[in-house]
Amino acid sequence: MRLLLVLVPVVFLVGGVRAQKLPTRDEELFQMQVRDKALFHDSSVVPDGAEISGYLFRDTPKRYYFVVEEDNTPLSVTVTPCDAPLEWKLTLQELPEESSGEGSGQAEPLDQQKLQVTADEGTELFSYKGNDVESYVSSSSPSGLYQLELLSTEKDSHFQAYASTTPESDQPYPELPYDPRVDVTSLGRTTLTLAWKPTPTAAQLGQPVQYCVVVSQEHNFKSLCAVEAKLGADEAFMSVPKPGRDFSPFDFAHFGFAPERNDLGRDRPAPAPRAPAYSPRAARPDIRKVCIGNKNIFTVSELKPDTQYYFDVFAVNGATNMSTAYVGTFARTKEEAKQKTLELKDGKVTDVFIKRKGSKFLRFAPVSSHQKVTFYLHSCLDSVQVQVRRDGKLVLSQNAEGVRQFQLRGKPKAKYLIRLRGSRKGASMLKVLASTRPNKQPFPSLPEDTRIKAFDKLRTCSSVTVAWLGTQDRHKFCVYRREVDPGQGEDQRRREQNQCAGPQARKKSDKVLCKYFHSPNLQKAVTTETIRGLQPGKAYLLDVYAVGHGGHSVKYQSKVVKTRKFC
């Protein structure tokens, strides 16, 4: 049994207007007639068992006519609203006796068939208003003219329609399992895992099925068609016709009307090819769609913490490219772990530890009015990123290494939030001080070059001579030594480079000497020292500590030296 779906104008041509002809059941003559623009002035023909994509202008109804030629014919009609709720109804009018018998295979003019729509609207079989995918199914339908009328009252809208007289054997839509819900099996701050039961279509009918997962921050979707419309209507559907223009002439290659043989041995036009889901140019950051094959478990990543998301799964029939929606779900990702904010006290040094790639927040709220605020930062290991906000406004953003000093203009009752971001290499340790009295310098001033230089020609079997740079400020310098194993590990080397580990952490036996040194002339601010009492052919780690007036020390870069083995 063949079902013919005909899109006609709001009213058929009547009276003095030249009569049209209904498509004949002869395939070749049928295709020849639909190519005749004069024959089909404003119509679209969809054969039995195919899904079409259409477009509705707001408040402009569109009508389709199903001609069922024999009684007791199964009939299934499915309408899918894409981007707006639709009103649609299906009505039945009896066929005139002249055209209800066996077809002759010859085209019959409409005036001879007397198939004109009159004021009699027929018997209403089904009606629906909303944005759900709805179907009318009858196991035994009488012959007659079935009119499908669609209307969009909210806005111009896309839709899809499917009709078949063999719904049991076609089964173009994948069947849902007995439990069609999508479950959230695990939930984190930025990831979430979904699971669902597989469709029985693949196992029972042997049809290829894949699953598409949609993630949205707005709402759940009731059809894949609605997702595609949201992602980009211009790319997801056929181009929208301009008002007053018709669809003809038809391009049958585009709509896939070439006949093919099906398993039942009768000709059946191939399903219309679907346009791609969406173009990357039209992609929206708040909606994501990914097709994952036949897996029924999927982990969604790169989500935002403490954000509600909606998740939908669609089973897509690979043979027909038609889809069925599971019952979607929603979930809110977990909150970020709340950062503890350290309070800085005016003029007091605070020790800060930051995990690898981690962050720490510090707050400074001066009690008294102030003209300037000075932040002293001593990064013990690698460089860190420093951001300072004054009353919520970003006033400083820099990378800091070693000892740094930042001075900002003050404001009455201002509050400062400092964010420290750690290194990618490893954990970071810092000493931080905030002060509204910049004359008090807690850390010793250091030269730009904090290396220790060893003089190779002055090496002996029991001594080495080294030099380092000083500054114009008078500071106390303490020298320490320790015998080391040349094969020590990277962790040990990293601990040795900790500039915040002061002399108090060293053994008394490691101490070589302490002395005061400065020079008004920076060009001459160099001091040397010879370390004696060493063993021949041994390696020693040398450290120089500069000690500030407040007792806080800063270590120069460690230096490994080796005495001569033979003298």
Automatic annotation (TrEMBL):
Residues 174-323, 444-553 form the Fibronectin type-III domain. One of its GO terms (biological process) is nervous system development. It is found in: Secreted. CDD domains: FN3 (cd00063). Its main location: secreted. One of its GO terms (cellular component) is extracellular region. Residues 1-19 form the signal peptide. Keywords: Glycoprotein, Neurogenesis, Repeat, Secreted, Signal. Pfam families: NDNF (PF10179), NDNF_C (PF19433), NDNF_N (PF24354). Gene3D superfamilies: Immunoglobulins. This is Protein NDNF. Residues 261-280 are annotated as: Disordered. Secretory protein that plays a role in various cellular processes. Acts as a chemorepellent acting on gonadotropin-releasing hormone (GnRH) expressing neurons regulating their migration to the hypothalamus. Also promotes neuron migration, growth and survival as well as neurite outgrowth and is involved in the development of the olfactory system. May also act through the regulation of growth factors activity and downstream signaling. Also regulates extracellular matrix assembly and cell adhesiveness. GO terms for molecular function: heparin binding.
